[in-house]
Design brief:
Blueprint (H helix, E strand, L loop, with lengths): L2 E8 L3 H12 L5 E5 L4 E8 L2 E8 L5 H9 L2 E8 L3 H10 L10 E2 L4 E6 L8 E7 L2
The structure holds ligand LP2KCY5N and cobalt (II) ion.
Cobalt (II) ion (CO) binds next to β1 and β5.
């Protein structure tokens, strides 16, 4: 794993949360993006060497909407950048982690992503990300 690529935060009100993180961090998001396949709106703020990803569910059955309904707003996942996502998926599988995707899928911000089930990672949802080159 190379570094913490981003921390994902589930929010109820995208506009309110973007305003709050602007006031908190003193920077505008460098990108906002709708990811249809995940049923989310996302925005990314650079902070130090990593990023904060705000996520709003856009459909009632999206992972973010379900998370907020069950657990409220808050930290939803930690994303680690990897050099070779296929290799890392194989390694984690062999270590007994439960992967939520058989193959990498297209995420936000020009990345391939794969998720690790929180039940196999001490209650934390892990995202692997690899830049699409
Ligand atoms: C925008 C793209 C991408 C990026 O490029 O950055 C993203 O970040 S997308 C982010 C949204 N997408 C995902 O999260 C996809 C992966 N997640 C999933 O597949 C599911 O959310 C899940 C983790 C498998 C859970 O789904 P499901 O089992 O259908 O939901 P339940 O509500 O029944 O939850 C079961 C169980 O798991 C707990 N849970 C759910 N989410 C989390 C979480 N983020 N962190 C920790 N724990 C989580 C939930 O509370 C339930 O626990 P129990 O009640 O104790 O059983
Ligand atoms: Co993410």
């Amino acid at each position: 794993m190379l570094n913490v690529e981003h921390i994902g935060i589930a929010v109820k009100d995208f506009s309110q949360a973007n305003g709050l993180y602007f006031r908190l961090l003193g920077v505008e998001p460098y990108k906002t993006e709708h990811v249809e396949s995940e049923g989310v709106n996302t925005s990314f703020f650079r902070v130090g060497g990593t990023k904060i990803e705000l996520l709003e569910g856009t459909t009632p059955d999206s992972a973010i909407s379900k998370f907020i309904e069950k657990r409220g707003e808050g930290i939803h996942h930690i994303a680690f950048e990897v050099e070779d996502i296929l290799k890392e998926m194989e390694r984690l599988k062999s270590e007994g982690f439960i992967l939520l995707n058989d193959a990498p899928k297209k995420g936000a911000d020009n990345k391939l992503v794969c998720f690790v089930h929180p039940k196999s990672a001490n209650g934390v949802l892990i995202e692997l990300t690899q830049e699409i080159r």
